[in-house]
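Translate sequence into C-alpha cells.
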Amino acid sequence: MIYILAALLPPLGLLFNGQPFSAILNVVLIVVCVLLGLLFPVLFLVPSAHAVIAVYMRREDRRHREVVEAIRQHGPPPGYPR
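Result follows.
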C-alpha cells in the first residue's frame, strides 16, 4: 500500500513512511522535473522513482536492524560457524 502511495503521491508516501527530509527533497524534485519535463517528458517519473526507492531502502534498513537485534538477543542460528 505504501508503495502505491509513494508512486502516485510521492511526498505524501514519504511522509507516511517517516521520511520528512526525503519528502522535502521530493517536492524540490517535483518542481525541477515539472520545469524540465516540458523538454524531457521522462523526467516526470523521477520523483515517483525516488519515493519508491526511498521507501524500499527504509524498509530494508528496518528489516536488517530487526535481524541484527534478534541475533544479539538469541545468538547466531544453529550450525553457524563462530
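Note: The two ends are 40 Å apart (CA to CA).
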